[in-house]
Amino acid sequence: MKLIQKDNIDIILRNTKNTPRMAVCMYFTIDIPEKMAGIYTLFSKLLLKGTKTRSAEELADLIESNGIETSVKCKQDYLKVATLFLNEDFELALDILSDILQNSTFENFEKEVFKLKGEIVSDLDSPQIKASDALIERVYQNHYYGNSLNKTLADIDKIQKQDVIDVLAQIMNAKKVISIAGDIKDEDKIVDYFVQKFNFMKTNNNNVSKIENVLAIPSLSSGEDIIKIVKNDAKQAQIFKGIIVDTQFSEDYPKIVVMNNILGSSGLSSRLFVELRDKQGLAYTVRSALEPLKHSSLFYFYIGTEPKNIEKSLEGFKIESKKMVDSLVSDIELTGAKENILGRLEYFSQTNMQLASVAGYDYIMGFGLDYEEKYKAKLNAVTKEDIQSIAGKYLLNPAIVSILAPEEYLKNI
């Protein structure tokens, strides 16, 4: 992995010899909260819908007929524009990418608004997504990270086309990086190509984020805040319990990752699965998960269960949390968790697209090029005592609980 900075353009190169396809990922930081929920999502959807030189149909046909894969992904902290192509199609694929980023017309704005509304309504028909969406909105209330599907649906008709166009100017003034993985015959030639053809990718390393850190759940000093969502035809209760934890930049983070794996993210062997599903028969699905963002991380429990088991399930979350605090995990659990996590990291670092994506993400988030190796070393260094300490620091903290179920089962919660 090599970082080359030339003419204020940051380029990461990963040379993977004898591979037939090359991946290029371009990352842009998002440093400004959305003016209205849904603007960034609309931007990412419209970016591939035609340019000043190619209609949406021509663009789609050109990409498909040459076997080029092009995608746009917008998350809370960054925009990623990526392309995967055969080595011989380098100039064609990059010409398309340049055209998209410089000349998008954002045509069919009204059509995309209509489609997005339909997609959101469809998503919120899912009881699990509806409960999860309510959790996110409440955990990050009054913060950009809380721009939920529900909020987007409320705001979307107020969004104007100019709001979306303004995003392009915004990201062009942000920190950027070009990340490439493939069979690179001549590094200097590749770098010179981007300097000449992608001068709009000059980065602004002095850009200051206007997104605030989230260190705790707002307006909740103790206990739990319970959101009740009535769905009388629901066969399952959907239960989420969310707790704010520290970010990926903290020394706590690798310890939280290992704790999460032992508690509920490792599938059949996790404590939640064994205790709540296998032994007590409470769950159809049960797990814990960790959602890291640049200015916050959310740790949450999830269970899908019969509505009559809501209180037992919530008590089960508390019991398993307290076990982590009161007793050391076993050597077998600790070793298994580390092997599981490191194995997944290895599995998702195989293809050129994965390599380019990970390197670009690490760089744009501010971790640096050597982050993956440092992160693995920190994971390996986590002890049983670390797990107990980190569980005590976070798992018993104030939480938000989101429950979707028939009304009769919510009355006494």
Structural commentary:
By secondary structure, the chain is an alpha+beta fold. Helices cover about 45% and strands about 20% of the residues. It has helices at about 40-45, 55-65, 90-105, 110-125, 125-140, 150-155, 160-170, 185-195, 255-265, 270-280, 310-325, 330-345, 350-365, 370-380, 385-395; strands at about 1-5, 10-15, 20-30, 70-75, 80-85, 175-180, 225-230, 235-245, 285-295, 295-305, 400-405. The strands form 2 sheets. Strands 1-2-6-3-5-4 form a 6-stranded mixed sheet, sandwiched between helices. A 5-stranded mixed sheet has the order 7-11-8-10-9, with helices on both faces. Helix 1 (about 40-45) packs across helix 7 (about 160-170) and helix 10 (about 270-280) packs across helix 11 (about 310-325). The radius of gyration is 23 Å and the shape is globular. The mean pLDDT is about 95.
What tags apply to this protein structure?
413 residues; alpha+beta; six-stranded mixed beta sheet; 11 strands; 21% strand; globular
Overall mean pLDDT stands at 95
| Inertia-based shape | globular
- Strand ordering within the main sheet: 1-2-6-3-5-4
| Biggest β-sheet description | 6 strands, mixed
Alpha-carbon distance between the two ends: 53 Å
Gyration radius from CA atoms, angstroms: 23 Å
Strand content: 15-25%
Q: Kindly name the structural category.
A: alpha+beta
Uncertain segments of ≥5 residues (pLDDT<50)? none
- Percent of residues in helices comes to 40-55%
DSSP, total strands: 11
How many alpha or pi helices? 15
Topology order in helix (H) and strand (E) letters = EEEHHEEHHHHHEHEEHHEEHHHHHE
